[in-house]
Amino acid sequence: MNQLSFIPLGGIGDVTKNMYLYEYQGQILIVDCGLGFADETMLGVELLLPDISYLLKRIRSANVKIIGMVLTHGHEDHMGALPFILPRLPNFPIFTTPLTAALSNEKLKEFGVLGRVQSIAFGENDIQLGAFKISFIRVTHSVPDSSNIFIKTPIGNFYHASDFKFDLTPFDGKKTDFAKITAASKEGIMCLMSDCLGAEREGHTPSERILSENIEQEMRETQGKFILTTYSSNISRLNQAIHAAKKQNRKVCFVGRSLVKVSKIAQKLGYMKLEKDMEIEAKDIKNCNDKELLLLVAGSQGQQNSALARIANGEHREIRISPLDVVVFSADPIPGNELSINSLIDSIAKKGTRVVYSKISDDFHVSGHASSEDLMLMMSITNPKKVLPIGGTYSQMVAYKNLARKQGFSDDKILLIENGQEMIFSKDKAILGKKIELGNIYVDEISEEVIDHFVIRDRQQISKEGVVIIMAEVSAANGQIVGKPNIITRGLSHQEQAIINKKLTKELESALSRRLGRVADWVYIRKRIGEVAEDGIFKSVHRRPLVLPVVIEV
Amino acid sequence: MNQLSFIPLGGIGDVTKNMYLYEYQGQILIVDCGLGFADETMLGVELLLPDISYLLKRIRSANVKIIGMVLTHGHEDHMGALPFILPRLPNFPIFTTPLTAALSNEKLKEFGVLGRVQSIAFGENDIQLGAFKISFIRVTHSVPDSSNIFIKTPIGNFYHASDFKFDLTPFDGKKTDFAKITAASKEGIMCLMSDCLGAEREGHTPSERILSENIEQEMRETQGKFILTTYSSNISRLNQAIHAAKKQNRKVCFVGRSLVKVSKIAQKLGYMKLEKDMEIEAKDIKNCNDKELLLLVAGSQGQQNSALARIANGEHREIRISPLDVVVFSADPIPGNELSINSLIDSIAKKGTRVVYSKISDDFHVSGHASSEDLMLMMSITNPKKVLPIGGTYSQMVAYKNLARKQGFSDDKILLIENGQEMIFSKDKAILGKKIELGNIYVDEISEEVIDHFVIRDRQQISKEGVVIIMAEVSAANGQIVGKPNIITRGLSHQEQAIINKKLTKELESALSRRLGRVADWVYIRKRIGEVAEDGIFKSVHRRPLVLPVVIEV
Q: Which domains does chain B have, with CATH numbers?
């Protein structure tokens, strides 16, 4: 059939774990392969993966295969799932821009997976992947070498406008390639898949460059160490701080594993320029005057155990903070991180150190995402038949819809879908296809292995309700409880423990006394003890702990 | 000694669980008795209490007693801990303003505690409590009858400026009593204890009244139900919505236990005026045209199981949401609640219903706290010798300090202290006193009982690391493990379980084989199995689950 199936496996509604499938006549093109970040209810979990079970099932069919993958840019939520996902899929080519390729391959290497992401420069020819003709278009965002992807297919063309903004004066001078966007527009665009994260924000997103002067000014007034924290991938922000440090004769020290890694890659590929004697390692800063130091430190989201958290709590081996230092948070809080960021800021403030953060100053961070006007500009330039917002919450998609209406799109041309919802495009229309059930795929914080949903459920239950272990000796001869059952609880209060101990013993005895004779079915006995206990505990203390009955045959 | 000891038991740094002790010659005056709210790391806990162990110890001394308590206003974080704290303290008088007293007594009643909070109107005479002369001064805030407290003592006067703003055109017309503040100022103020929550915000906090027009306008354009959610205690906001509903012939329905309760009290005391036929119960709204309804719904902070969450998820028995309805969030997110609020907004947006929230409109909420200029105005009017910020995070206290500097206070006159830090005031100076160690006092979400810290620690460990139960039969004759130990795990992955099973059996056997002979000390055997297991598990899967060894004597 002459149609294209578009399915988001992640990235819609939940912002992160971006992964999109474009399938045409059994050829599947994957765009992005990103991580999600767990919230606090997902106990012991740090990362989430897109659910690829549909994809795995699909490629088991005859005549269906993955023709290739393209990555839009080097942020974790667009490429971080590669080490988890690639080993589970057959081989296919993967293309992306140079810095994105380097960051992806480094990440794969860390996990012991072969780095097979191929780099393609913006100037190079388009790539033909089966029926798909792919063109990378440079856009500005908060990491260099970010791209939008123009996808030509036999039934029409798609413009995949993943994370972008229109920075007309980017710090590295590498502007959005408007000429190439216009050229794509001329070829006709069936649907614009567009970033919508900034759709609730009015106006245009300001240029990264407006921060330079503020950083220089603040640095100049700083009598001690100048400490700036931002996302490790925000190379442009790091470059601005480095630029200011050069002028003011401060040496630069990268602190934190991720920042050190990114700065190495960026320097190697020429995205960061730093004379050799200007960089200094953390262990050597004790030999420097504080006034001659710029520390670029990981941990802007208040992550526990980050370099900045350790510095703030006086636990960092090489770095102490002093009242003359200044700490600048050059990043906005990601929703959900507010409390830990606030508490980190408080820890630093308690040392008497000046902290500059979003609530007291807007001068040190701009968003990497397009705002309302930019999003409408993108619609205007690409001039698509239809639009489909991606990479935002549902509310942001609704805000995007309102912008699209202002741009003259009728409601049937504005496609709001959820993850797992197939959209079927044919030459003249787009209709809803099947809805795929997607699960949450959790990566355990400690083992870094994928764990099952029921493990999280167990953890949630135990953490809130506690655990009760009931050890009962049961006579094989008559099926009666011998002696007093041993009851161990964890996560319950003393009072509750006492109540349970008192009530349960009797209830268990009477529950088992109703049957008599030799025990034939030990599983039944165990189950029965569990049921009676769960019931009895709920009745007496209104709690549903995880009950583990243990039967000892005597 | 002629000095006064001031000790915050809560409210400084953590914003909530406000409770302050003023002690003069063995007489303790308590100001406020508020709850704290647990963060997501406090598993199975919803509420926190101020730690009163110092107070309990103190009043055990001869010649020390609690002379009385005063409450500044009717917010949970200032009076919500009463039902938990009062039963643990001896009897003493408690005074506050009429609405605050009604809300407090209602709360005590719910918990089966005698409601003994006495109401005093603003016009009445000052109260003499031992050496303290107390005067309630009306201020504007987001709940009616909010007060600042002027405390006269033999060594000097204190102005306790708990939560306030300067709303010059409050919706209920009851303005801040500037005359009384000025009069207090004339008597001389030794120290101003001041709200500092808004110290990071520039300018003045706008009046509540500016919202009226916006609410009316939005309501007028709403074709379906007009649904407004705010804090239950924000009676002024509720009144504005009710006022608009009157004009537009909409009936009013309060939805959610807390809102129904507050509206009843407010109506009874005359703080809310609603003709009898204008109010309607949830069960009757099915008989009304949607266009004739205003729903005032609890759940503006995205609380699970709140009325609004149940409506959004289609789980409310009487109320369905439709695309013609409009839902207005008339409250800013409290830090930490962002994710659940976002997800609630998304659920509503998915129904096609218009949602108005802080990110897309500033027109429906103003803060109840003073901003920078208001805080400086308060310093100006009260003209104290010293200032001491309360009720804010440390960063907000630092921001307040910067404002105080602008008002000409030298650093030694700006007192930044943490909870538990005693400040000793004498006629001519203020010095730091002892530092009291304060613990976290948790209230269990289910039992509503106070639980110990180690219970939370157990829950945290189990929730992140899982639990492993090791049941080993040990021969009493020779102390050796008989058969294979039974290992039960929860919260661990299949792989980890398999690894543990395989490795641990051997390790346990060899650990015990080193000793031989009859078992004399079963506790030692149990402990040894626990240690070997913890060690073995950490070595094999890098995890520290809660290990519960169970030894069965055979």
A: 4-203+367-444 (3.60.15.10), 210-356 (3.40.50.10710), 466-553 (3.10.20.580)
